[in-house]
Request: fold
Amino acid sequence: MLRYIAWRIMMMIPTLLLISALVFTIIELPPGDYFESYISELRAQGEAVDMAEIEALRAQYGFDQPPVMRYFHWVAGMLQGDFGYSFEYQLPVNEVVGERLWLTVLVSTFTIIFTWLMAFPIGIYSATHQYSWGDYGLTFLGLIGLAVPNFLLALLLMYFANMWFGTSIGHLMDLKYLNEPMSWDKAKSILEHLWIPVIIIGTAGTAGMVRRLRANLLDELQQQYVVTARAKGLSPFRTLVKYPLRMSLNFFVADIGSILPAIISGAEITAIVLSLETTGPMLIKALQSQDMYLAGSFLMFLAFLSVIGVLISDIALAILDPRIRLQGGSTK
Amino acid sequence: MTVQQIPEPGAPLPHYVSTAPFDPYSVEAMTEAQSRVYQASQIRLIWWRFKKHRLALVSAIFLGLLYTMIIFTEFLSPYNLHTRNVDMIHAPPQRVHLFHEGQFIGPFVYGRDMTLDMDTLRRVYTDNPNDVQPLRFFCRGDTYKFWGLFEGNLHLVCPAEGGTFHLLGTDRLGRDMLSRIISGARISLTIGLLGITISFILGIVIGGLAGYHGGIIDLVVQRIIEVLQSIPSIPLWMALAAIMPVTWSPIVIYLGITVILGLLDWTGLARAVRSKLLALREEDYVLAAQLMGASTSRIIGRHLVPGFMSHLIATATIAIPGMILGETALSFLGLGLRPPITSWGILLTEARDVSVIANYPWLLLPAVPVILVILAFNFFGDGLRDAADPYK
Reply:
């Protein structure tokens, strides 16, 4: 088991390196850099530009060096926990980002738990009651969840929550807690605000998971061991819980790996619409103003989050299913 | 029926040979219906299988109609895309009536009076029951440039002379929503198709090379696929879309967006192609082709890929909704297409505010075609996937 975990963690390194190279290429692609837009902005405001100061800043952040050197500089910095400097906020990225990373993790985690809680019973019901009205109804609801864009759902929920409950949604906490340190009241406020984004982000993932779980369970239900168990006189419920359910549980855990990137994607858009205090709104601003280290760190962080999520699901799968860790090879 | 007597033990059994004509091949002979199935081509079998999936069939027809429609958008929309009706800003949808005071007139709308509500400063539109404006069909209306090439002014339906006809209301500039939704279809629907074409080609070429050659190429491709699949797609799309300079013309941006959507989507297809090829390349017919001196590209393209093309097409169909949603999301965030190009995503940006939904809910109508098209593509893809392997 330990060998498998170690091997799996080793495999993350090239993946993360490739991701970092890709992210760096993307943030380097736009012509010009932040300083050029900064200079033109200053000029437009009619202020004098101190070229010497700009050049000094350039040298300080390594902009006089070729991109390859800057890439290594950036990666080395990240390994030491230094994510670079946000030009727009004139602060190190670490300080700008602050809580937002943790709130993103929080939202994603809760969304996954929500997805599970919803998808598992619905998937089982749909598979055991195939072609019943309940199955059709739930499948249809799921498809609607899949088809409605996240941002639209966010808008509609915002509107109806406003109309029915009179609460304004948006944000992840009461604004008075915004820059406060963590406290019980703040945690409570966050939990109160959390359910809306979790539902919005979770719907599409839930729909997809129910669909795959149903197909998977239907395959298992036709296996001969199920027939044998029934023939032995096991009650339908015990048959279901004892065999097919355990088999599809494997698949269930493995599926986290595939829905996690989707959940994080959805979380970004929803966060922008609802102006949550997560990475989404800041990422889009950073992208628009070419604040490249900030944007790069966000992209890197989001990718890291999903890589870690896949790792956890792989390890959980290895614990559940001995066949996988004995192979020691790829998990898919 | 006579009861067969069991002969006495030891008694000679009667020997009997029927003299009736006998056809030794009668077992193998098939009824007409059977031979029709056995001789049918693969395409025909797929079609028969597909037809059974009612919902998929309906979806296919719906999509077919929509894609035919985008050829004639200018003709089908009652107004020109950019026509502004300044008297009708944020006007709600107009109802089509058939009877006026119990008398049949044919399809018509009532004219409208606008008053300004001085408390809320909102425009209030009321139907004027004396102003009957019959609709005209196959009529001359706003001029347009068909596909940007030919001048024309023929419309399927237009308002009465001097009247208005806004079936789905108007937006904040007084532009007709119905016309804008119809025009948006052209961009929103083609973006998915172009994107999927790019990702289809990439998927077959890269997945094909990896699966056919194996070894180091396979390893590298596997890694790249893993990386691309582990990065959340929308932030990546956002980053790539943000790169495109503001100075680019809208049409170049449109192409850029399709390329971005396609460039990041090929991984699923490449995986499918690769795993199929890994199994198929050991087949005898591949060896035969190699011995005949066929090149790699010929073996992959002519001998291997056609074998599971139907699967690939089904997989690709299921990927299209993701692209349409992606475009909508990007445009909604202001990173995708920009006006004057009109897509459903751009139309939805107008409904960004909760107050807009409260006051002018018809601005959310572009979401209806988005949802319908995505559902239709899902059903269509499901049906294709079930039918893709008719021999099962």
Notes: The beta strands of chain A are 85-86, 91-92. Chain A touches chain B through 47 residues (CB under 8 Å). Residues 328-332 of chain A have pLDDT under 50 and may be disordered.
